[in-house]
Amino acid sequence: MPRYLALAQQLLQQINQGQLRPGQPLPSLRQFAEQQQASKNTAIAVYQWLEQQGWIEARPRQGYFVRARSRLQQPQPAPLSPQLPSLGELGLQIVRTAMQPHWVPLGSAHPCCHFDSLDSWQRQLARSARQHKPAHSHYQVPPGHPGLREQIRLRLHKRGIWLDADDILLTNGCQEAFTLALQTLTRPGDIVAVESPCFYGVLQLLEVLQLQVLEIPARSPDGIDLAALASALKQWPVKALLLHPSYNNPQGYAMPDSHRHALISLTEPYRLPIIEDEVTAELGYQGQMPLALKSLAPERVLLCSSFSKTLDPDLRLGWIAAGPWHDALLHRKFVSSMASPGLQQQALAAWLQGRGYDRHLRQVRQQYGDNWHQLAQALQGLPQGCQLNAPAGGYLCWLQLPPSVDSLQLWQRADQAGISLTPGALFGQQPQLRHSVRLNFAHWHRDIRLRKAMPKLIELIEQCQH
Ligand SMILES: Cc1ncc(COP(=O)(O)O)c(C=O)c1O
């Protein structure tokens, strides 16, 4: 954990244990740095972090003070204004913890890759590897393997998305698709609107690209708040909107069709480019494929997806259908990463020609649906004030905690108990996100530790309440 975060957590503990009381002044930055034998910059980072999280406040010419309890207990939504994301190292830190094999895996958004239905895929991969002749090896330059692009086209066609295989650009996962899209649509300092809470990979990317983020509230079951978006668009020169409307990470909702139509109409007068994240679109528990925004506004929507959540994130196989920006993205992809691994592309193209992938999706959807029900049952004893949002698909759910529970503190305590989870603060800067966590239940059916960890999780939430 970075030093500043460890020091901030110490102060947070003192606040929670009543050693530092509401209204009490904190040492000046210089005193704090001396006491902790830290640099002044570290002291600044500690106070800034606590201030951002709403625990302390700066008073002009007086210094820093612990915030009044009442303001902590009722986190107010921050006014909508663009901000530079500042996740820094926190994201990587939390993801690293979540990936440790000995931790109970509620944290990272890694899917389960152990399904019988993947046997035929493993065999295809081995066959393709055997047939791969080094003498014929070459860069699989963009737009990527024609056979795989054709298979993706056919799948989109069934959903009313009319594209040519040449409209599809293969990428290293969906994350590279976002990167190429944002680099093409924006310049540093521009404003990008996202739903809040928002997948933190996007926020980290905006931070690195020096873009400002405008967090528009989103709630289950509809998704992004259209009234808030409408007023934001009137007020700010937003350059792009990035959304994950189908089995959203972290909230699990599927935006209703009527809401999708309204969103497209609302953004039409601005000709606003929309980056649509569809990584989980095939994971709805009812088997229904959502209406893609791309099918409603093909010229304005950059459709991004990958096989990371349905098959294996390790493949790093993603794609983007960017409409009029296709050529610009293709060039950018070529100069930045040259190509994507051809062997995986060839193997997947061959496998998608059969029925194996659809058979696999049926098994996965059913298993994740069962897992969700079992998790919800195991968490029936959650303390009052908690709310577990029911997802419509995927393998993630969002647990809202009582306002007195700080999710970073819960994350830290859970970490000490060998349980990984993802604190809400990672999904945006709105203060109310501090009181939520995201849970991954993809591994529930295979990992008995998850079931056993539920009473402990409930106990930790109760402890944080006090
Ligand atoms: C909602 C969402 N979109 C995109 C990504 C990135 O996907 P990929 O692994 O294909 O780069 C993730 C990864 O966790 C995700 O959760």
UniProtKB/TrEMBL annotation:
<keyword id="KW-0805">Transcription regulation</keyword>
<dbReference type="Pfam" id="PF00392">
    <property type="entry name" value="GntR"/>
</dbReference>
<dbReference type="InterPro" id="IPR015421">
    <property type="entry name" value="PyrdxlP-dep_Trfase_major"/>
</dbReference>
<dbReference type="InterPro" id="IPR000524">
    <property type="entry name" value="Tscrpt_reg_HTH_GntR"/>
</dbReference>
<dbReference type="InterPro" id="IPR036390">
    <property type="entry name" value="WH_DNA-bd_sf"/>
</dbReference>
<keyword id="KW-0663">Pyridoxal phosphate</keyword>
<dbReference type="InterPro" id="IPR004839">
    <property type="entry name" value="Aminotransferase_I/II_large"/>
</dbReference>
<comment type="similarity">
    <text>In the C-terminal section; belongs to the class-I pyridoxal-phosphate-dependent aminotransferase family.</text>
</comment>
<dbReference type="Pfam" id="PF00155">
    <property type="entry name" value="Aminotran_1_2"/>
</dbReference>
<dbReference type="InterPro" id="IPR015424">
    <property type="entry name" value="PyrdxlP-dep_Trfase"/>
</dbReference>
<feature type="domain" description="HTH gntR-type">
    <location>
        <begin position="1"/>
        <end position="69"/>
    </location>
</feature>
<keyword id="KW-0238">DNA-binding</keyword>
<dbReference type="GO" id="GO:0008483">
    <property type="term" value="F:transaminase activity"/>
</dbReference>
<dbReference type="InterPro" id="IPR036388">
    <property type="entry name" value="WH-like_DNA-bd_sf"/>
</dbReference>
<dbReference type="InterPro" id="IPR051446">
    <property type="entry name" value="HTH_trans_reg/aminotransferase"/>
</dbReference>
<keyword id="KW-0804">Transcription</keyword>
<dbReference type="InterPro" id="IPR015422">
    <property type="entry name" value="PyrdxlP-dep_Trfase_small"/>
</dbReference>
<keyword id="KW-0032">Aminotransferase</keyword>
<keyword id="KW-0808">Transferase</keyword>
<protein>
    <submittedName>
        <fullName>PLP-dependent aminotransferase family protein</fullName>
    </submittedName>
</protein>
